[in-house]
């Protein structure tokens, strides 16, 4: 079996449009939640979101192309271009037939769907944009990225709602581990801060109704009342170890385990006993060859919804046993909101940086403890540790999808 390492990363997030800016903001506990500026949200009953700030798609593509791509594709391309530059990959010197892309989106081109349905309603079906379909279908972030970088190997996207990004990393890991690919760009991208996105999740009573940005996304806090919509993208370059060594690549971390299960229970609520997510965590640890006592950090799904955070706490106890009370846990969604299909990708990058720097990012906005959430959530201030070797990244999606990736600090081969 091949070892799989991380040789590049790229991110556009509500607290920074590069990996370095994102990481510095995470360390500082910066809050990316603000009042919605993209549109007048007053009638939705939801006023907060975690929007990208100062994102310029023309840095990554010609202006003409931005007219033919939805925001979710633009974000994905931006993160992928950053990751490629960070990796130093030269497609002239690798086998592009073994170079793949697995970049997913939970929803796809929601902004374009909204815009074009309104146009059709107001002006008739003949006025629908010629590029409507390739702008909205969920695979087009991966497709556009592959076109941009010349990747001719495996190219796909995985739709498992909020687990999409983590499933993408996990499946890319397996493809390289078992010898089908040499290099894969893996991650997720999402852009759903629009009227129908906010109204839809609001109607589901999934979003926070708070008007205070400091009390919007507050995972594991007793006063949590829903998640805050975020947006952005994260892409990691996963590469077979020898392939990376042969080209002298800088290695940032290693992927060593992956678990994926389904609750097979409820459309939107996680299993109360924690067994679904818990078994995914157990699978990831088993593949990594570690035990609960070896886990130094868990980046929780931690959405700030009443149902998720207590159920995920139970799932962590299911998987970790007595060690659950010893492992530091945080939800970076407290700072960036919930990026849906991109969440696991950006959170995976947070795990890699945490292991690389021996620094665990905080769960900000934590004020009132909940008896149903009684673990160590690294409240409010990040934590420097002597050594962090293994981290789990949890993602749980509507439909009962659970995905967990185990990352390992890079150590010389």
Automatic annotation (TrEMBL):
Pathway assigned to this chain's UniProt record: Lipid metabolism; fatty acid biosynthesis
Top-level taxon: Bacteria
UniProt-listed Enzyme Commission number(s): 2.3.1.179
PROSITE patterns cross-referenced by the UniProt entry: KS3_1, KS3_2
Key words, A-Z: Acyltransferase, Fatty acid biosynthesis, Fatty acid metabolism, Lipid biosynthesis, Lipid metabolism, Transferase
InterPro entries named among the record's database cross-references: 3-oxoacyl-ACP_synth-2 (IPR017568), Beta-ketoacyl_synthase (IPR000794), Ketoacyl_synth_AS (IPR018201), Ketoacyl_synth_C (IPR014031), Ketoacyl_synth_N (IPR014030), PKS_Beta-ketoAc_synthase_dom (IPR020841), Thiolase-like (IPR016039)
Catalytic activity: (9Z)-hexadecenoyl-[ACP] + malonyl-[ACP] + H(+) = 3-oxo-(11Z)-octadecenoyl-[ACP] + holo-[ACP] + CO2; a fatty acyl-[ACP] + malonyl-[ACP] + H(+) = a 3-oxoacyl-[ACP] + holo-[ACP] + CO2
Keyword Transmembrane: no
Active site: 162 (for beta-ketoacyl synthase activity)
CDD domains assigned: KAS_I_II
Domain Ketosynthase family 3 (KS3) span(s) in chain numbering: 1-409
Gene Ontology biological process terms in this record: fatty acid biosynthetic process
GO cellular component, one term: cytosol
GO molecular function (one): 3-oxoacyl-[acyl-carrier-protein] synthase activity
Role, per record: Involved in the type II fatty acid elongation cycle. Catalyzes the elongation of a wide range of acyl-ACP by the addition of two carbons from malonyl-ACP to an acyl acceptor. Can efficiently catalyze the conversion of palmitoleoyl-ACP (cis-hexadec-9-enoyl-ACP) to cis-vaccenoyl-ACP (cis-octadec-11-enoyl-ACP), an essential step in the thermal regulation of fatty acid composition.
Protein known as: 3-oxoacyl-[acyl-carrier-protein] synthase 2
